[in-house]
Amino acid sequence: MHKIYEDKGKFNFLYQLPQIIYSTLIGRVIDTLIRYFALSQDNIIEFKQQKNKKNLQSKYKNLLYIIKIKIIIFFVITFFVVIFLGYYIILFAFVEYI
């Protein structure tokens, strides 16, 4: 806000460029993590398209194990993100209260 005041309301693209790059990179990392842990159709399609039908039972158990682990990790990450955002909102509300 102070930089905008110093620039008399003009948009300084070079000053904003690092923030744009950081937010883009962080957003891509979060998007990649969510897509990897939340979506399991690639594993299921790979299992369905196997030509070799030997050891199908063990491959099925392995697929279920992988999906369970991905879901558990997804919910753990989601839990910590919700806790962090809740903490952030509480701090913001506390600052506004003072």
Task: Give the SSE string.
Answer: HHHH
The level of helicity is over 70%
Low-confidence stretches: none
Strand count, sense and barrel status of the largest sheet are: none
**C-alpha end-to-end distance:** 20 Å
% residues in beta strands: under 5%
Mass-distribution shape: elongated
How many β-strands, per DSSP?
0
> What is the averaged pLDDT score?
87
Radius of gyration: 22 Å
User: Multimeric state of these chains?
Assistant: single chain
Count of alpha and pi helical runs: 4
Number of domains: 2
* Strand-pairing-aware structural class: mainly alpha
Describe the structure in your own words:
Helices cover 83% and strands 0% of the residues. By secondary structure, it is mainly alpha-helical. α2 (13-38) runs antiparallel to α4. The longest helix has 42 residues, at 56-97.
Put the structure in a nutshell:
This protein has 98 residues and is mostly helical. The protein has helices at residues 2-6, 13-38, 41-48, 56-97.
Observed structural traits:
98 residues, mainly alpha, 2 domains, 4 helices
Secondary structure blueprint with pairings:
Layout: H1 2-6, H2 13-38, H3 41-48, H4 56-97
Helix pairs in contact: 2-4
